[in-house]
């Protein structure tokens, strides 16, 4: 609602023109509707079973409510004349004459009259009346202080506000403003004025929230209803994977299957053995992959395709995983029961090697601030290191397995690892509290959602389980259909707002499910060996990558029907998502 800014002193808000009052009160009028207007010539709406006129084919929209909400929206958009004309032509006032009088009294600062009028509005809940009276008299109190009428303010506090018996702690706080010499000091800051003296228009907004919607239509009600309808359409759309700004009011929203990355746009063939792991950087500009060939590769992602940036050599064993630093400037690579190496993404230089005598690393991860790294070891412990290699802490005991993923939550407090064949450990390193997710089947891998609220767990029985890990862990959904009998198969969250689940599979396919419904919506053929890992670009919901035993990485994008189909290119830069 428009009006005087909050940071103006109350004394400057005392004089308002009639036009400003009309605008601030959303321009509603107390005139009786004009007889014989053009509305009489319009077709009459249907009658509902209760006798009220309704509009719409379903008979659930009450005409009076509908018109009032439209009028409210018109006034809020600044269409004062249109809103007033709608009230007049329809004969349906936005507010009753009593409510209009009440609103004008508030905006004009007629506090005593407004409290009396409040009781004539027809409110049945005495608590609401008292709470609204409290807000009004509080504003009166502040404006008296602004006018340096401390005794009048004290009298209002003692004889009008306190007897309401509402919010005693606030009453004590108000009394402190009288005795505090800083309140009436001429050097007080505008920020203090903003906090202590709400504008009258702001007070009116607060009263609107407090009073029943039938008395005063809530601000932004039409916008809320329209947004709610769009969100419901979006959430019901199985293939929704495009930005909300592309939704339109002109037609019901429905995405097609073409919003899911399902066409292999590029095949990357730089690895010389099975590709076991891959992961996009947080900003989506890079892709890192690790292989049984003892190397990792940093790929650069462009609009037109993916190209090799650096091949990282130095490990003496196959690489089981990689992990991007929070700022994507560095990369960790973990050899299978070997060492963890930290690399500079820009130069491809190895910055440090983390190792522990007699032990091998099995997993790696970063703290959210990028100051420390974590690693799981083959003695089942988890260690935390400074970047220079100094060991800060080590959690010994049954903390991890020789084959395990490692994740750190976004707040940096929890370390997540497979601690037993059928259990995942959620270790709060600050509170030193351990929680567990117990499964009936052997756990092979897991993935943490971007918001750190959900965990995706791959099981030996060819199921993927989605767990909510806020508070006590709860099983949310199950995903089935992919094949897993011998190998470690990894899955991931992805798409717009991570609304989809993707997974590799031993039958050479990539599987994609709708996260909310659990329905399998796509299988992507193309690989000639088991698909070990998938990663969805967090910055581009239309780009998915898959790594396979066939030694290749496939980059999947939209199946753009307007682009002539081509065989996916394996060398150089190739078109991506229909862009050359």
Describe this structure in words.
The protein is an alpha+beta fold and 580 residues long. It has two domains: 95-178 and 197-221, no CATH class; 257-557, YVTN repeat-like/Quinoprotein amine dehydrogenase (Methylamine Dehydrogenase, Chain H, 7 Propeller), CATH 2.130.10.10. 23% of the residues lie in helices and 28% in strands. It is built from eleven helices and 31 strands. It has a four-stranded antiparallel sheet, with no helix packed on it. Strands 5-6-7-8 form a four-stranded antiparallel sheet, with no helix packed on it. Helix 4 (97-108) packs antiparallel against helix 5 (111-118). The model is unreliable at 1-25, 27-44, 184-197, 561-567 and 569-580 (pLDDT under 50).
The number of E-state strands comes to 31
CATH superfamily annotation of the largest domain: YVTN repeat-like/Quinoprotein amine dehydrogenase
Secondary-structure-based class equals alpha+beta
Give the number of helices: 11
Strand order of the largest sheet: 4-31-30-29
Shape: elongated
Q: How large, in whole angstroms, is the Cα Rg?
A: 32 Å
Main β-sheet description? 4 strands, antiparallel
CATH class of the largest domain: Mainly Beta
How many domain regions? Answer: 2
Helix content: 10-25%
Can you give the mean pLDDT? 86
N-to-C CA distance: 48 Å
The percentage of residues in β strands lies in: 25-35%
Give the CATH architecture of the largest domain. 7 Propeller
Low-confidence stretches: 1-25, 27-44, 184-197, 561-567, 569-580
Tell me which oligomeric state these chains represent: single chain
According to CATH, what is the topology of the largest domain?
Methylamine Dehydrogenase, Chain H
């Amino acid at each position: 609602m428009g009006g005087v800014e909050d940071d103006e002193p109350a004394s400057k808000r005392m004089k308002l023109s009639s036009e400003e009052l009309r605008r601030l009160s959303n321009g509603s009028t107390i005139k009786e509707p004009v007889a014989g207007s053009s509305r009489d010539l319009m077709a009459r709406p249907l009658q509902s079973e209760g006798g009220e006129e309704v509009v719409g084919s379903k008979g659930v929209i009450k005409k009076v409510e509908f018109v009032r909400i439209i009028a409210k929206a018109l006034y809020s958009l600044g269409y004062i004349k249109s809103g007033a004309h709608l009230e007049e032509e329809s004969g349906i006032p936005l507010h009753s004459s009593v409510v209009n009088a009440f609103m004008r009294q508030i905006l004009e600062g007629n506090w005593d009259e407004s409290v009396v009028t409040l009781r004539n509005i027809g409110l049945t809940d005495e608590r609401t009346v008292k709470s609204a009276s409290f807000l009004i008299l509080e504003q009166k109190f502040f404006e008296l202080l602004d006018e340096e009428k401390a005794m009048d303010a004290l009298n209002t506090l003692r004889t009008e506000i306190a007897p309401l018996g509402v919010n005693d702690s606030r009453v004590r706080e108000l009394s402190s403003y009288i005795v505090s010499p800083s309140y009436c000091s001429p050097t007080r800051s505008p920020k203090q004025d903003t906090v202590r003296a709400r504008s009258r228009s702001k007070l009116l907004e607060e009263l609107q929230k407090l009073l029943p919607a039938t008395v005063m239509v809530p601000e932004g009600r039409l916008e809320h209803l329209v947004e709610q309808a769009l969100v419901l359409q979006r959430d019901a759309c199985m293939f929704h994977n495009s930005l909300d700004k592309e939704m339109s009011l002109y037609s019901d929203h429905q995405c097609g299957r073409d919003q899911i990355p399902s066409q292999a746009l590029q095949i990357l063939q730089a690895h010389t053995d099975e590709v076991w792991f891959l992961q996009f950087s947080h900003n989506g500009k890079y892709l890192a992959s690790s292989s049984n060939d003892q190397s990792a590769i940093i790929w650069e992602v462009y609009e037109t395709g993916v190209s090799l940036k650096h091949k990282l050599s130095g490990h003496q064993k196959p690489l089981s995983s990689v992990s991007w630093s929070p700022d994507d400037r560095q990369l960790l690579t973990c050899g299978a029961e070997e060492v963890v190496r930290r690399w500079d993404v820009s130069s491809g230089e190895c910055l440090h090697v983390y190792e522990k005598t007699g032990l091998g690393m099995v997993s790696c991860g970063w703290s959210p601030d990028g100051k420390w790294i974590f690693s799981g070891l083959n003695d089942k412990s988890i260690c935390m290191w400074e970047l220079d290699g100094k060991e800060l802490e080590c959690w010994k005991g049954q903390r991890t397995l020789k084959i395990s993923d490692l994740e750190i939550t976004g707040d940096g407090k929890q370390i997540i690892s497979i601690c037993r064949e059928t259990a995942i450990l959620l270790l709060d390193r600050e509170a030193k509290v351990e929680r567990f997710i117990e499964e009936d089947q052997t756990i092979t891998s897991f993935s943490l959602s971007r918001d750190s609220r959900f965990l995706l767990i791959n099981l030996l029985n060819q199921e993927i389980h989605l767990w909510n890990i806020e508070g006590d862990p709860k099983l949310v959904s199950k995903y089935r259909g992919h094949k897993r009998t011998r190998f470690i198969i990894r899955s991931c969250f992805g798409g717009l707002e991570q609304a989809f689940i993707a997974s590799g599979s031993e039958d050479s396919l990539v599987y994609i499910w709708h996260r909310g419904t659990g329905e399998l919506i796509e299988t992507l053929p193309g690989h000639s060996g088991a698909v070990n890992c998938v990663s969805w670009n967090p910055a581009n919901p239309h780009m998915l990558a898959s790594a396979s035993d066939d030694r290749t990485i496939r980059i999947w994008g939209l199946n753009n029907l307007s682009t002539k189909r081509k065989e996916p290119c394996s060398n150089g830069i190739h078109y991506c998502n229909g862009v050359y």
